[in-house]
Amino acid sequence: MLRLSDCPEVLDALRAAMAGWPVEVVEAEGAAPPIRLGREGRGYRQHSPALPEGLFLSTPTEAACSLIADLVGEYFDRHPDSIGLHGGSVEVDGRLMIFPAPHRAGKSTLTAAFAAAGFRVFGDDVLALTPEGEGMALGIVPRLRLPLPESFAPGFLDYAERHAGPADRRYRYVVPPRGRLASHGEVRPLGAVVLLARDEGAVAPALSRLAPGEGLLQLLCENFAPEVASEALMERFLPLMGQVPCLLLRYSEPLAAARALGEALSGPLPAALPAASLVARPTLSTGALPDGPWAPEQSVLDYPLDDELFLVEVASGAIHRLNPTGRLIWQLLRHEPLSPEELAELLGEHFGLPWVRVLEDVQALLAGLAAAGLVSPAGMVSDCP
C-alpha cells in the first residue's frame, strides 16, 4: 500500500509500468502508510522505511521507478516464503528462461528484445521464486535505459517506440501488448538459467553449456534475500540447479540473441552445445603449513552439485566453491584427518600422477582452505556446530 498526494501523473505512470499488477485506487484516510509520495516544487518527495529522510524525484517516471522498488521490497517482506531473484525472465515453450545478472548487465534490454520477438515477459528485473521452486511474475513491464544504441536492430528500435510507456531522459518503460506480459501471481516452472555475455565482436549469438555451479553461484549472488541464511538459500537453489540446465549466451545485438535463444529452447535442448566455463581458478600461495594432519572445521556445511562442492561457513554465511579435485580432497578429510603428504599419495594413486607433482597442488589448496577458515590442523578444529 502507498499514498500519493497531488500527483495524478505519477499514478498514471505507475498504472502503465505495473500493467500486470492489480492496482486499486481509494480515497486516503487514517494514518499515512510507510510508503508515500507527494508533490514538492517541480518534483516529488518519497518517504519509505528505506528512505526515512525522504528522496527528491524530478519526473513521474523517476518516481514510478523508485516507488516500484519499495513496493517490490514490501511484497517480499509480506511473503517471506518467496525469494526475489534479481534478473530478467521470459516464457519459452511453457517454461521460464531466467537471466540472473547484476545492474547494467543487459538483462532488461534482452527481456524487452524477447517481447519484440513475440515471447511472453515475466519480468525484467525481479522474479519471485516460490517455495515449490517455480517462478512467479510480479506484473511489471520492462524498463530500458536511454538512449538506445543505434546499433540495435531496426525491428527492436521500432518495437520500443510503438510500445513506449512512461519515459524521461534516462528511462523508458516498454508496455507489451495484451497477453504478452504475465500478470501478477502467474507461475511457471523454470526451464533454464542463462548467464549473459555481451560481446560487441560476436558475429552471431552463441549458446553454450555451463557447469551447474556457475548458475548456482549467480543465484546466490543475485537475489533479494539478505536476511536469509546462506545454508537456507543453498537448500532452495541447489535442487533447481540439479534439474535445469545452466547456459551461457554470448551476443552483441539483443533482438538477434532473443530470437536465437528462443528458437534453441523451444523444445528439447540441443545435445551438441559446446561447453564453456566462466571461472578462472586462482593460484593460491602455499604459505607455511604446519606439519601433521588436517581436518575440516565442524562449522562448515558442504553441498555437492554435479562434480563440484559448495562450502558454507555457518557463522559468517560465506560461500566457497571447490572444483572436482578440491571436492575429492574435502571428502578425504571428512573421512579422517590427513597430512598434505598423505593426501598427495592418495591423489597420485587415484590420478596416476607422481607424488611430488601432486603435493604442491595439495599444499596450495590446503593453504587456501586454511586462510578461509575451512580447515585446521587436527586437534585444533572447533567443535562448534
Q: What share of residues is helical?
A: 25-40%
CATH C-level class of the largest domain: Alpha Beta
How many H/I helices? 10
Detail the poorly predicted runs: 279-286
Proportion in β-strands? 25-35%
Structural class: alpha+beta
Distance between the amino and carboxyl termini: 42 Å
CA-atom Rg in angstroms: 25 Å
CATH architecture of the largest domain: 3-Layer(aba) Sandwich
Integer average pLDDT: 89
The name of the CATH topology of the largest domain is Rossmann fold
Would you spell out the secondary-structure blueprint of this structure?
Elements (H helix, E strand, L loop, with lengths): L1 E4 L2 H10 L17 E6 L2 E6 L2 E7 L2 H19 L4 E10 L2 E6 L6 H10 L3 E4 L2 E4 L5 E2 L6 E3 L8 H9 L1 E4 L3 E4 L12 E2 L1 E9 L7 E5 L1 H10 L8 H12 L4 E6 L2 H12 L28 E3 L3 E6 L2 E6 L5 E4 L1 H12 L4 H12 L3 H17 L3 E3 L8
Parallel strand pairs: 1-2, 6-14, 14-16
Antiparallel strand pairs: 2-3, 3-4, 5-6, 5-7, 5-8, 8-9, 9-13, 10-12, 11-12, 15-16, 17-21, 18-19, 19-20
Helix pairs in contact: 1-2, 3-7, 5-6, 9-10
Structural description of this entry:
- This protein is α+β, with helices and mostly antiparallel strands and 385 residues long.
- It folds into 3 domains: 77 residues, no CATH class; 183 residues, Rossmann fold, CATH 3.40.50; 84 residues, Outer Surface Protein A, domain 3, CATH 3.90.930.
- 32% of the residues lie in helices and 27% in strands.
- The chain contains 10 helices and 21 strands.
- The strands form 5 sheets. Strands 5, 6, 7, 8, 9, 13, 14, 15 and 16 form a 9-stranded mixed beta sheet that branches.
- The longest helix has 19 residues.
- About 2% of the residues have low confidence.
- This is PqqD family protein.
- It holds the Pfam family PqqD.
- It comes from Halomonas alkalicola.
